[in-house]
């Protein structure tokens, strides 16, 4: 999200502080020519342990151990900027496709489960959603406050961690889950919860495998949660056939596969973006 035309110097300074606390890094936001964050290097080119996620030449990598790994080195700058522009274009494309297929979000309530810094809640608030809420297990409230101030939006944030329930206690017109199932040991339980929360439409983006069966694969153990069985797997993938069946079983009469361009061909081949509409 390019916010250079509306972000002030004070906004950029606040963003730097949040970035060095790990609260402004994963999603692609550009606040000035000297501040750009995003995990494009990892997402587009394949997994890298702790890839640099913040381009900010004015910050000294020596200020902390975190800064040393998070800040983009000069030799990586061009590649970092390119991959995050690609990631932002993909996010915006998804938002545009969802808006078109649902007939617009003006007046609707939107929930993004696993929202990170708030790219989708802010974007849908900008598009006219009457309520746009983000849930995440990490507290991104300060980041959302900053983005709302910059964008003139009213996106909301709630600290929330999925507890294994099958049915949500409240519904929203549109529910989103972007790269969340990949981190769960019981993805179908959470998918059922998402379906119950979606009054009109559910969007899910997740890595998938193409085997012609109804299967879940556990590929790796998350290095951060190695001793938290069964919640220790990352990456978890569903077969495409299983994900389609799940949407049908949850009562979505129309299921549309969204375009994942302009991401890399390999990334497109291994990910599925589905929008279910009741």
| CATH superfamily membership of the largest domain | Vaccinia Virus protein VP39
Q: What is the overall shape?
A: globular
Number of domains: 2
Determine the fraction of residues in helical runs and give it as a percent range.
25-40%
**Mean pLDDT figure:** 94
**Given the structure, what is the number of helices?**
9
CATH topology of the largest domain: Rossmann fold
Q: Strand content of the residues, in percent?
A: 15-25%
Q: Just give the CATH class of the largest domain.
A: Alpha Beta
Order of helices and strands: HEEHEHHEHEHEEHEEEHEHE
CATH architecture label of the largest domain: 3-Layer(aba) Sandwich
Beginning-to-end CA distance, first to last residue: 30 Å
Largest sheet: 9 strands, mixed
Whole-angstrom Rg? 18 Å
Low-confidence stretches: none
Coarse structural class: alpha/beta
Query: Could you tell me the number of beta strands?
Result: 12
Notes on the structure:
- The model has no long low-confidence stretch (mean pLDDT 94).
- Strand 5 (131-136), helix 6 (141-151) and strand 6 form a beta-alpha-beta unit.
- The protein has two domains: 9-83, no CATH class; 90-277, Vaccinia Virus protein VP39 (Rossmann fold), CATH 3.40.50.
- The two termini are 30 Å apart.
- It is globular, with a radius of gyration of 18 Å.
- It is of the alpha/beta class and 278 residues long.
- Helix 1 packs antiparallel against helix 6.
- It is built from nine helices and twelve strands.
- Strands 4, 5, 6, 7, 8, 9, 10, 11 and 12 form a nine-stranded mixed sheet that branches. It has a three-stranded antiparallel sheet with strand order 1-2-3, with helices on both faces.
- Helix content is 35%, strand content 22%.
């Amino acid at each position: 999200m390019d916010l250079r035309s509306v972000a002030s110097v004070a906004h950029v300074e606040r963003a730097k502080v949040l970035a060095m606390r790990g609260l402004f890094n994963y999603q692609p936001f550009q606040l000035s020519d000297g501040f750009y964050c995003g995990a494009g290097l990892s997402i587009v080119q394949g997994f890298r342990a702790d890839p640099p996620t913040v381009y900010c030449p004015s910050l000294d990598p020596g200020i902390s151990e975190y800064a040393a790994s998070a800040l983009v080195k000069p030799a990586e700058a061009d590649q970092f900027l390119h991959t995050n522009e690609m990631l932002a274009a993909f996010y915006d494309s998804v938002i545009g496709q969802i808006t078109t297929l649902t007939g617009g979000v003006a007046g609707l309530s939107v929930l993004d489960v696993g929202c990170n810094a708030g790219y989708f809640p802010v974007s849908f608030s900008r598009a006219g959603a009457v309520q746009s809420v983000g849930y995440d297990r990490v507290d991104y409230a300060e980041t959302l406050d900053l983005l709302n101030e910059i964008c003139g939006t009213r996106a909301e944030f709630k600290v929330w961690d999925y507890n294994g329930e099958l049915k949500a206690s409240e519904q929203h017109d549109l529910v989103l889950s972007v790269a969340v199932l990949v981190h769960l040991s019981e993805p179908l339980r959470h998918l059922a919860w998402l379906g119950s929360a979606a009054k009109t439409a559910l969007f899910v983006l997740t890595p998938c495998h193409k085997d012609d069966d109804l299967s879940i694969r556990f590929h790796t153990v998350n290095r951060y949660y190695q001793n938290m069985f069964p919640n220790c797997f990352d990456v978890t993938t569903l077969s495409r056939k299983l994900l389609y069946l799940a949407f049908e079983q949850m009562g979505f009469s129309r299921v549309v596969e969204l375009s994942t361009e302009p991401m890399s061909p390999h990334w497109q081949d291994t990910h599925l973006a589905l929008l279910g509409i009741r």
